[in-house]
């Protein structure tokens, strides 16, 4: 009986490790698509029922209530970058932390900017073997 329990625990830890690796891979792909302004690829990371809180720069103080609304706000970010002839947005997550919860994950990290210390939290959920963002929270604190 003891070896069966040990085996189940080992399988659970192995599965969690594989999932956390998949989450990190998803995060890296998401950041790469965002940084390089690849809209069609970027939008595929969000669930249809995703919600989000955006930083003040987005000029959207309330929660975005669904994937369409979230993507409409992000589309403006992409359009703004292109209007300013940018081919890239410099996004470099720092101090990334992944917390696994069954079929969900909380990913938090910081972004450094000369004027603002950015804080980001993504909640991802595994749906049909794909990790999707179901909530994004973006905020920032001014450096003193």
Walk me through what this model shows.
By secondary structure, this protein is α+β, with helices and mostly antiparallel strands. The protein has a single domain, classed as Nuclear Transport Factor 2, Chain: A (Roll), CATH 3.10.450.50. It has helices at residues 2-35, 39-43, 67-83; strands at 46-53, 94-101, 104-112, 116-127, 130-142. A five-stranded mixed sheet has the order 1-5-4-3-2. It starts with a helix and ends with a strand.
Helix and strand element order: HHEHEEEE
Which percent bin holds the helix content? 25-40%
Rounded Rg: 17 Å
Q: What gap, in angstroms, lies between the N and C termini?
A: 59 Å
**Total of DSSP H or I helical runs spanning 4+ residues:** 3
> Which secondary-structure class do the elements indicate?
alpha+beta
CATH class assignment: Alpha Beta
Q: Which ranges are low-confidence, i.e. pLDDT below 50, for 5 or more consecutive residues?
A: 1-12
Strand line-up across the major sheet: 1-5-4-3-2
Q: Can you tell me the number of structural domains?
A: 1
Describe the global form: globular
The counted number of beta strands is 5
Percentage beta strand: 25-35%
The description of the largest β-sheet is: 5 strands, mixed
Instruction: Give the averaged pLDDT, no decimals.
Output: 89
The CATH topology is given as Nuclear Transport Factor 2, Chain: A
Question: What's the CATH architecture name?
Answer: Roll
